Structure formats: structure tokens, C-alpha cells
Amino acid sequence: MRTPVVMTLGMVLAPCGLLLTLTSTLTPGWRLVKGFLDQPVDVVLYQGLWDMCREQSSRERQCGQPDELGYFAAEPVKVARGLMVTSLAVTALGLLLATLGVRCWQDEPHFALAGLSGVVLFAAGLLSLIPVSWYNHFLADRAVLPAQSSPVTVQVGYSLVLGYLGSCLLLLGGFSLALSFAPWCAERCRSCRKASPSSARRSSISTVYVDWLTPAIKYYSDGQHRPGPAQLGPTSRRKAGFPMPRPPPKAYSNQVDVLDGEKSPDSHLDGSSRSTRPCGSALPCDSDL
């Protein structure tokens, strides 16, 4: 049996979503801050969930920058840390279930287990999409996510974009794998119909026994009910059964010579003259017929 398309699609999208979500969680690129007054114009500060890095075009990136404004203590950052890590763990669990359910070394896939893995991966996608969307909502709010005042500007970082993409891929992959429940549900419904006594097919009318009608038919004839042998007594018992049809009547045949006496003595002179005297037989003559 070939692997269904929904399973193949889910097994492709889910690992891609896991890779993008992991990259988004670890990289310090959720927010990009630039335009500092006391620093060169090309200085850019990348802020993530675990680290902050300072980058200048003429120098290498320097990570481990101090958090002077309390960025890591902000509520969206704390929630994003917990939910992103939880999403990664749930995604790993979902991929493990998908590996066991989508055949691999089996002749046929385990539809129920594959569908369960899809539900788990879909939940993992939601767990990663919630913090990414919440962080993006407060991206420019300096009261929630601390940053220097204007003219310092804040922009969306690449890690946030990767988080969006990874969450969407997990949602699509989980939904695709969850469609594996359809064959499993169809099989369960068929087995329930077979096992249910109310759904059993009723017997045909040709199999109904009507032995109880035999006495009524036996003692009913000519539009009237006839008494049974027990009511008529031992001397008036009749034979049981239906009357046999009578044979059709035989064709009429006259055993007497009907031509005897029909011709006159001089009939040989005139063949057209015939006697009107009736024949001497009681049976009808041919001429009369």
C-alpha cells in the first residue's frame, strides 16, 4: 500500500516547521533596534529571547550585551520563552508519533496514530504562533518592550519572521496528518453497523412461515367457512385436499350412419335434389348441424 498523500505532506511540512521554530527560538533576531545617538550610524542591536547582539558593518557581531533597560524582564519575552520551548517539545513528540504511525517499516499505516500525531503537531503550531503574534503586537510599544526613545527605531527581526513561518508549517503539517482520522473513522463506522442488531437486514417475506393459516385455508371454500372434521363428527368427515379439475369434454361423434335415408331413390337422376325427410336417428344429422 502506498503512503497516503496527506501523510507524506505532513511528514515533509512538520520537520521543516520544527527547524524554523528552533532557529527562531535560539537566534537573537526578534527585534532590530538602530539609530542610536551616541553610537555610529551603522550600529544595530539585535534582541532575542535569550541574548542581545551588537553588530557594526566594519566589525564582527558581539553578543552578550548587557540589558540596561530590563528587556528580558518584559512579559512578552518571558511568555515567549516558555511557550516556544513547550512548542519544540510537543513538536518532537508529534514527530515521534508520526514516525510510528506513518508505516515506515509496516505494510500499512496506523491511521489512528498518524491522526493523533497530527493533532499534537497542530497544537505545537498554536503554541509557537501565540508568543510570536503577541511579541509582534507589542513590538513598537516601548512601555511593554523597553527601548531607547526616539530617534531610535525598532523593526521586525528575522527570527520573528522565521517563527511565523515555522508555526504555519506546523499547523499545515498537523492538519494534513490529522486527516488520517478519516479512513479510521470510516472503518469504525462500518464495524459498528455490522455489530449493531438494529441495523441487521430484515428477512424477506418469502421466508415467513404461515403454518398457522393452513387450517383456515383448509376449511374455507366457496366464500364460506366450513366446519372441521372434529365438528362434523366421525361419520361426516371429509377427505382433506383440493378438488382436482375435471377433464375437458370430448368432441361430439355420431356412431350412426347419418347419410342413411338422406338421399331419395331418384337422386341418381338429379344430384341436386335432396330429401327433406328427417333421418331415422335420434342424434342430429350432419345436415342439421
TrEMBL record:
GO MF annotation list: structural molecule activity
Membrane topology: Multi-pass membrane protein
InterPro entries named in the record: Claudin, Claudin_CS, PMP22/EMP/MP20/Claudin
PROSITE patterns linked: CLAUDIN (PS01346)
Keywords associated with the record: Cell junction, Cell membrane, Membrane, Tight junction, Transmembrane, Transmembrane helix
Main location: other
Compartments, as annotated in UniProt: Cell junction, Tight junction; Cell membrane
Any one of the GO CC terms: plasma membrane
Annotated transmembrane regions: 79-99, 111-136, 156-184
Ranges in a coiled coil: none
Biased composition (Basic and acidic residues): 260-271
Region (Disordered): 223-289
One Pfam family linked to the record: PMP22_Claudin
PANTHER family for this protein: CLAUDIN (PTHR12002)
Family: Belongs to the claudin family.
Protein name, entry field: Claudin 23
Species of origin: Sus scrofa
Gene, per the UniProt record: CLDN23
